[in-house]
Amino acid sequence: ENCRIIDTYQEADAVLYHGPDFHGYNQHITSKQIAVFWVLESPVNYRPNRINWTMTYRLDSDILLPYGVIRKAEGPIQVDYEQLWNEKKASTVWLISNCGHNNARIQLANALQQGGLNIDIFGRCGKPTPNNCDGTSKQSDKCVAELFRPYKFAISFENSLCPNYITEKFYELLEDRYTVPIVMQRSITRKNLQAPNNSFIAVDDFKNLADLVNYIHTVENSKEEYLKYQSWREHYTVKSAYFSIEETGFCALCKKLMANNFTTKYYENMSSWHSPNTCEQPQDGFAKKYLDLVTALPL
User: Fold this and answer.
1) Residue 14, helix vs strand vs coil
2) Distance (Å, rounded) from C-alpha 14 to C-alpha 141?
3) Which architecture, in CATH terms, is 70-240?
4) pTM (two decimals)
5) CATH 3.40.50.11660 occupies which residues in the chain?
6) 156-189 tens-digit pLDDT
7) Fucosyltransferase N-terminal domain spans which residues (predicted)?
8) Tens of pLDDT along 132-157?
9) The sheet that has 63-64: what strands, in order across it?
10) 53-56 and 63-64 strand pairing
């Protein structure tokens, strides 16, 4: 209640620079104002300039701006396993709107399909969705939740493999879609975000895609095995923070400003801190490693 978001930077205590639109340090802000690098996307086009604080999804940011939060529940939570199992009628779904990224995630999903995994791909990179649910802006719509709920699994491949970079789509799968995410790397999801081990399946837990496909078939055809991936719900809560100002970094930014603990700390070169070089490069790509082994799939 002590903070306001305004669009007149001359009156502001903190000035936020949105990463993708940051074209140069504003020399007109005063020494009493805090310059904050604010970004939710992975490293793309950034220019070297001086910034005081960082406000991103990365865990080493001055102000953490998460896509979601996973918390230990205060007490046991009742889960209706019978209803959950009964509503799961289909195998795997993927809603994807950006077909242009070069981490080979689409090729990886296609290889899984080729190997026998039944994936319904919707969106601009697949078939049209029911009720016009296409588009990134609609990922949090009720129609998307309804689309996902009958599926046991969902592809949750990010458009880039960068430290701590897990977007709201992963959290939403756990929060209200009751669908088990299939991610690329366990380390990013588990080590960095503390997601329960049995809340998702990671490609890199398997030597090749054939082993992964066989494992998913085993789990989806066994009520007991599948519900093991839902048992964490008794002990954890999940909330997508993307559209909740209380759960995002803005309240933390306000508190930091109210503490009046302004220091002379600054990042002289943001391009080295938030650089594409911190991400896995396409030529050394994670997906490529598995695609090179695609001959191991039963065709």
Assistant:
1) strand
2) 32
3) 3-Layer(aba) Sandwich (3.40)
4) 0.80
5) 70-240
6) 998 888 888 888 889 999 998 999 999 998 887 7
7) 7-68
8) 776 545 566 788 888 999 999 999 99
9) 14-18, 34-39, 53-56, 63-64
10) parallel
